[in-house]
Write a structure and sequence with these properties.
The protein is mainly alpha-helical. It is 82% helix and 0% strand. It is built from 12 helices and no strands. The chain has helices at 2-28, 34-47, 53-69, 73-89, 93-109, 113-129, 133-150, 153-169, 173-190, 193-209, 213-231, 242-248. Helix 2 runs antiparallel to helix 3 (53-69), helix 4 packs parallel to helix 6 and helix 5 runs antiparallel to helix 6 (113-129). The chain is globular, with a radius of gyration of 17 Å. The termini are close together.
Length: 251
């Protein structure tokens, strides 16, 4: 039941944030030169990774080809991570790990910290799914350190949420709640509605398990309110949420 509730809120919020974003991004492509399409293609690959994997991997492969053609190493790393996450979503973990290792090595070679952090977060998500929680935590904490160094509030929130999810799996609800509340603070500081909705749902699950029903209802209402706000077009209509996506897909 808990997993169903978690997935439900994530899907609702993901759909809210995705549609406007992909339509507007796709409209930009025809007017751009090939060298300037790479970033947009990667954004599309990311946004569609859950709702349309076929289109997502098509965009990611196009981005990878163009990034290599124009020697755009940062976008090459982003494309590799996107492809890895698509394979992870379909359960092809060996392929996912192969692409992630390429992405991490490339990012490390050029000191692209964002790519390193995204790769580490995705490594953590795979090990999390496979039940290797020690390796998952190791990668999440490395990613968290990089995100904190960059002052990347979105990345900080996503990795803290991933750490909290692991402690929730391990039935250490006090630790899980501590990391969730830290994640909530990071998302609030960065005004990332997508992350706030997801973390509000997760906090609600903790309070539900502790039979603190008033607090649980408060956080469920918060998640729903954010969803409704964005569905109506007010507030932030789009979120890159790259780190969080990697984690949340474990649902």
């Amino acid at each position: 039941m808990k997993n169903i509730l978690l997935i439900l809120v994530i899907v609702l919020v993901s759909n809210t944030f995705g549609k406007v974003s992909t339509d507007s991004l796709e409209a930009l492509l025809p007017g751009l030169e090939d060298s300037k399409q790479v970033k947009i293609l990667n954004e599309l690959a990311f946004e569609l990774c859950r709702i349309s994997p076929e289109k997502s991997i098509s965009y990611a492969n196009q981005a990878l080809e163009l990034a290599r053609k124009y020697q755009n190493k940062e976008q090459e790393a982003e494309a590799l991570i996107n492809i890895a996450n698509i394979y992870r979503g379909s359960g092809e973990f060996d392929k996912a790990l192969e692409y992630l290792q390429q992405a991490f090595s490339l990012s490390e070679n050029i000191q692209y910290q964002k790519g390193m952090a995204r790769s580490l977060t995705s490594f953590g998500a795979i090990y999390d799914y496979q039940g290797d929680y020690d390796k998952a935590l190791e990668n999440y904490f490395k990613a968290l350190a990089l995100c904190e160094k960059m002052d990347d509030k979105e990345g900080i929130g996503g990795t803290l949420m991933g750490i909290g999810i692991i402690y929730w799996y391990l039935k250490d609800n006090n630790k899980a709640l501590d990391y969730y509340l830290q994640a909530e603070k990071a998302y609030e500081e960065g005004s990332f509605d997508h992350g706030l909705a997801a973390i509000a749902n997760n906090i609600g699950l903790i309070y539900m398990g502790q039979e603190k029903y008033d607090k649980a209802l408060e956080y469920y209402k918060k998640a729903l309110s954010i969803h409704k706000k964005n569905r109506s077009g007010s507030g932030h209509s789009r979120s890159n949420f790259k780190h969080g996506c990697s984690i949340q897909q474990n649902g």
